[in-house]
Amino acid sequence: MSTIITSIDPGSPAMRAGLQPGQQLLSINGHTVVDVLDYRFYGYDPVSHLSLKNKDGSTQKLTIHKAEGEDLGLNFDSYLMDEMRSCANHCIFCFVDQMPPGMRQTLYFKDDDARLSFLQGNYITLTNLTEREAQRIIDLRISPINVSVHTTDPQLHCTMLGNKNAVRSLDYIRAFCKAGIVMNGQIVVCPGWNDGDQLRRTLRDLTEMEFSSCSLVPVGITKYRKGLAKLKPVDARCAGEILDIADQFGQENLRRFGTRRFFCADELFLRAGRELPGEDYYEGYRQLENGVGMLRSLEGDLLRALDLMDQPPAPSPFTIATGRAAEGFMGHLLTLVQQRFPQVQGKVVGIDNDFFGHTIDVAGLLTGQDLAAQLQACKPLGRVLIPLHMLRHQEDVFLDDWTVPQLSQALNAPVQVVGIDGFDLCDAIFGL
């Protein structure tokens, strides 16, 4: 079973109390343990009364004293202590449905698990949530959770999610708002579907619910959309309209509540040809993981890093590889560096996404094979700098399973992975 203990951390409270692998954890402080959230929340207190089932079928009760918040030290067969829940929806804009065949299997799995939303920041639709889990979120005040909203029109919500029962997720959103649960939302804007007046309705409804924060991002459309709902990319005109609608409601929220609440992804500003807003707009970068404010944050950190430098020696030449969307902005950042330190020799190369199609223009969806093919024509390269988010989490693998060493060999040039902020970029430029 999922709550059977597989191992115990050395020196942990559970080890000191004499627990053994093979025992099954039944409850903590009288609360049945079903999954990792039960384990973490009910085991938070400094005194934990455990009910266990032994290998021989007998039960045992045991009390553990520990520091508040200290983990009991128990490990189970899986991280969630349960099966990961796959998505029950058929969203019209789902990126997984637009993937080419033959890629690694994990890229085709659609998760929609509320526990991963809280623990790892995954976005969920709430359509998989049970009444017990919804009540647990309220009772334990589990926050924040990341929620895919898209629209608050019930019929359109069901249509866009491809699930006739998806309206229940709107009920959960209202209940969570009423209970004060912090939610970070996302609206994938699909022209002709949930833009224009539908977007105004959604932002108005979320304002009245006092929804915590919500990002607006443009739909991503690959060249593999076959047999799927007809979608159009967000063009310059549409991006400008989205920005204007979000700003209208953002200004209203600032006056009424002291928060903008709605934040537009960097891509929308770039597509509309508008200047990125200042740092104050992002309110501490609440939606940074959703591509909101990433470029402004990168510039601010880079300028602060440059202010801390004396007169560094001239670094070896380099090439910054990025997606077409950020090519101009990265060129702007390189100019800022060279204005202060003329000895810096570098260039920015925007890469077309031949793998997914040219409507996909962000760096994070570039593949090793596209980088290799297009950078070949830009030699001499010097050092090749690529952003961390091109790669699989904690690995050196691109979406197409090319690796960083493989790319380096193909280019006959060193490839350097640059971290997520401007300090990392500064260090990479100067070879520190």
TrEMBL record:
The record, for InterPro entries, names: Aldolase_TIM (IPR013785), DUF512 (IPR007549), PDZ (IPR001478), PDZ_6 (IPR041489), PDZ_sf (IPR036034), Put_radical_SAM-like_N (IPR045375), rSAM_sf (IPR058240)
Name the PROSITE patterns on file: PDZ (PS50106)
Q: Where is the PDZ domain?
A: 1-36
Could you identify this protein by its name? Radical SAM protein
Q: Please name the taxonomic classification of the source.
A: Bacteria, Bacillati, Bacillota, Clostridia, Eubacteriales
